[in-house]
Amino acid sequence: MISDIKKQKGFTLIEVMISVLIFTLLGLGVIELVSSMVSTGNKTSVFLASSDQGRKLSYQIMNELRNAVTASTGAYALNLANDQELIFFSNVDGGTDIERVRYYLSNEKLYRGVVKASGSPLIYNLGSEVVSVVQNDVANGATPLFYYYSDTYDGSGSPLTQPVNIVQVKFLKLNLQI
Asked: From 36, 67, 92, 143, which residue has the greatest number of CB atoms within 10 Å?
């Protein structure tokens, strides 16, 4: 009778519990692996989208600067040149008027403010500035966003020191870290 019991085929309770535990651990490992792959994919997608936005923004800023002109009030084309802020005058909306454009960095976001000239005589009412976020997740911190160079700049050398004399500025470097 004892020999008949030993000949029966099947799993013992301990073997079944160990098998269930192993399959559970393998299943959890697969779930974690898939979750990690999806999370990494999402982070990469967000990073690539931010980088693409940064490239488009850089192109926009440079185009606006290349089209900078004397303000409607007669002010010089470049109004302010700081490490984290740039103000200039350019026709950015395609109309006939020249707008005051301000780019500035605050709380890891790059903002763009635009003021249209109004009144007679024309003035730029800073209270009517329309501000929008143009880039999130800017990681410059204390690193300057804008570098300014004189007409002697040949691709190497130091930028102008702050405070910058705007009349000396001939070249600008945008250092946008995302």
From this structure: 92
What predicted TM-score, i.e. pTM, was given to this entire model? 0.76
Q: Determine whether 106 is exposed, middle or buried from the number of CB atoms within 10 Å of its CB (0-12, 13-18, 19+).
A: exposed
- Give dist(CA 121, CA 142) in Å, integer: 39
Q: How do residues 142-163 score in pLDDT, each as one tens digit?
A: 899 999 999 999 888 899 999 9
Pairing of strands 146-149, 123-124: unpaired
Nearest to 115 by CA among 148, 158, 73, 154: 73
Q: Which token pair is 65?
A: 């600067």
Token representation of residue 71: 């303000």
Q: How far apart are CA 178 and CA 139, in angstroms?
A: 5
